[in-house]
Amino acid sequence: MNFSNLFKIAYQAILRNKTRSLLTMLGIIIGISSVIAMVSLGQSSSQNINDQISTMGTNLIMVSRAYQRKGGINMGNSNSQSLTVKDVELIKANCKNVAMISPSVSTSGQLVRGANNWPGTMQGGSPEYIEIRKYELERGTNFTENDIKEFRKVCIVGTTVVENLFDDGTDPIGQEIRFGNTPFKIIGVLASKGQNQMGQDQDDIVIAPYSTVMKRLLATQYLHMIYISAVSEDACDKAVEEITSTLMSSHKLKETDTPDFEVRTQAELLTMMNSVSGFLTVLLAAIASISLIVGGIGIMNIMYVTVTERTKEIGLRTAIGARSRDIMFQFLLESAMLSLVGGAIGIIFGLLLSYVISMALNWPFIISVSSVVISFVVCAATGIFFGWYPAKKAANLDPITALRYE
Amino acid sequence: MPTIIKIENLKREFVVGSEIVRALKGVSYDIEQGEFVSIMGTSGSGKSTMLNILGCLDKPTSGEYYIDNIAVSKLSKDELAFVRNRKIGFVFQSYNLLPRTSALEQVELPLLYNKTISAKERRERAVYALEQVGLQERMGHMPNQLSGGQQQRVAIARAIVNDPVILLADEATGNLDTRTSYEIMSLFQKLHAEGKSIVFVTHEPDIAVFTSRTIMLRDGRVTKDVPVETKSAKEALDALPPSEDYN
Which pLDDT score is estimated for A24? Predict the structure, then answer.
């Protein structure tokens, strides 16, 4: 009995019962396609998060205010007055792993141009702010150190702001808009950046010199945040150390004191996001595997019924010279073929499903090779494992009884 | 003519509950090549047990059975399967064709379990066997597209495709009407004339007359083993009144 004959026998048997074979495969198809789709979508979503975070800059370091105690009163984080322009100067002077730095203050208010108005956020920064936050100037110019020194009321606007204030098609550059009661002259327009991973519109922004925002809008001496770009992604950790020690000494804090600031990197954010989406992927895949097991039991069920129904066929095959091992292999091969063909169809369906969903959600489409390989192995194993018992039963049938079976 | 089947004091006992049922109580006979033997007996005579042993589906409790000089009682299960595949052709009362399988594929089936035969040879031999039973026009037909007689012809083609030492027929006309029975017997006589050795198990005396020797079994013993004055099945067929069953 050679293998190609056995193969022929098995596929003839499967083709003889097309509808049943298809229904049997359906369980495996659903199981495998859901596993593939879940794993692939899980990876797409975490890739999507990665991509989004990278658009914010992988070497981005953010220094924010932590709560501060003044005379025993906890000021809370948002009222904390721990970060100053002096801190920025010190970091710039002392930290050699820092490439760019920008103070950050922001306030929201109504933007007005003629009859149009739009709620906007005025973001104060240094000329490096745009580059640190991975924005690009589409038209016009950036503001300069001089503008900062002289508290000039100039600004750079995002496309959302342009769309809402300049719906008549006027070139915004050189135009004046008001933020509350303060007029600002538009000197540049940012290229569109879309939404970030939180779903915020990153184009809904107005950037102005930080000094202007601090003096003319907020009347404050303190910064909300400091955005820093390390010289490279690898230098991030060193930069964080330098920044921390600079700020500790600048704020006259001992090493044992609780710092009144917080330094975070994108890498941390990335790790956190990935661990969440990784957990979800595992969870979804686990749920999907249950349907795979159910599919496998479906195969076992059908094979079991098949053996009883085909008792006479088994008797005949024995009578014409099939050994019990030939019968056993035939039934094992049938169930393995059912599950492998079902698995192949399932893989195609699963990939198609995840392709459609990732296109709809605007996520990157990822084929997880490992999940395809594992699914295929699981398929073969399912077929053999769940086919074993019925095949054994078929092989052990007594040919005389089987031939007389009605 | 050389002896192809040699049976010596063959006994077969079954244990049913606490009782021992003796189905065969010491049977001996020889069959030579080219014989057309009918084994007759009522139900309970042991003829089914005899057929199972002759067909290497069952082994005797004691005694010897040689087919083509092979001592069957000493063979393992796999060796028995080998003997069935190479030396024996079965024809059953209920045809035992696989559903939804073409006549050609049915006939190829025994050769699929013989790895020395290539796919090409398998096809050629199956076609030849179907020609021998007169079904060359219906090779692609499924069992449900064939009449009972035609289905039995497919089964006969399947039984002769491996060129067996002996053809074993178990009540092969039992499910057929008289006319078709005679047609099948005429086919068996034709195969016999071409040199095939045939053992035909039946309980119908009017079928046994088409064979050349009858072994009568009764209660597990041979009661009669006589040559038969063979009647021609073809003549019997011609003598039948015109068929009213078909048009």
Answer: 86
| One domain for residues A180 and A109 | yes
The residue segments making up the domain with residue A159 are 83-259
Residue A299 distance to chain B (closest CA, Å): 21
Q: Are residues A227 and A349 in the same domain?
A: no
Chain B residues touching residue A399 (CB < 8 angstroms): 57
pTM, to two decimals: 0.71
Binary contact (B112, A403; C-beta < 8 A): no
Chain A environment of B82 (Cβ under 8 Å): 321, 323
B174 interfacial to chain A (CB closer than 8 Å)? no
The verdict on A115 and A252 lying in the same domain is yes
Contact residues, chain B, for A403 at CB < 8 Å: 57, 92, 96
Q: Count the domains in chain A.
A: 2
Asked if A189 and A288 sit in the same domain, the reply is: no
* Local confidence band at A14 (pLDDT 50, 70, 90 cut-offs): confident
- Same-domain check for residues A251 and A276: no
pLDDT at B54: 94
| Least CB–CB distance from B57: residue in A1, A317, A319 | A319
Confidence of residue A120 (pLDDT cuts 50, 70, 90): confident
Q: What is the pLDDT of residues A306-335, one digit of tens each?
A: 888 889 999 999 999 999 999 999 999 988
Are A399 and A292 members of one domain?
yes
Domain ranges of chain B: 3-240
Enter the ipTM. Answer: 0.93
Q: Does B93 touch chain A (CB under 8 A)?
A: no
Verify that A98 and A26 share a domain, yes or no. no
> What is the distance in angstroms between the Cα of A334 and the nearest Cα belonging to chain B?
16
Test B77 with A324 for CB contact under 8 angstroms.
Answer: yes
In a domain, A44, yes or no: yes
CB contact under 8 A, B90 and A319: yes
- Nearest Cα neighbor of A107 from A115, A119, A95 is A119
The H or E element that residue A119 is part of is strand A116-125
In a domain, A37, yes or no: yes
- A65 located within any domain: no
A42 part of a folded domain: yes
- Whether B110 and chain A come into contact, CB under 8 Å, resolves to yes
For B3-240, the fitting CATH number among 3.10.20.600, 3.40.50.300, 1.10.10.10, 3.40.630.30 is 3.40.50.300
Say whether residue B120 is in contact with chain A using an 8 A CB cutoff: no
Which positions in chain A touch B99 (Cβ < 8 Å)?
A: 16
- Is the C-alpha dihedral spanning A237, A240, A244, A246 positive or negative? positive
Q: For A143, which DSSP code?
A: -
Specify which residues B218 forms β-bridges with. B221
Helix A324-360 with A3-16: angle, nearest 10 deg: 60
Which of A259, A284, A316 terminates a domain? The answer is A259
Within this chain, do residues A160 and A309 fall inside the same structural domain, yes or no? no
CB of A96 less than 8 A from some CB of B: no
Whether chain A has a CB inside 8 Å of the CB on B232: the answer is no
Long-range CB pairs of B6-11 (<8 Å, 24+ gap) are B6/B30, B6/B64, B6/B65, B6/B66, B7/B63, B7/B64, B7/B65, B7/B66, B8/B63, B8/B64, B8/B65, B9/B62, B9/B63, B9/B64, B10/B53, B10/B60, B10/B62, B10/B63, B10/B64, B10/B65, B11/B60, B11/B61, B11/B62, B11/B63
Boundary residue ending a domain (A229, A259, A289): A259
Which residue stretches of chain B are H helix? Answer: 47-54, 77-87, 103-112, 119-132, 148-160, 178-193, 205-208, 233-239
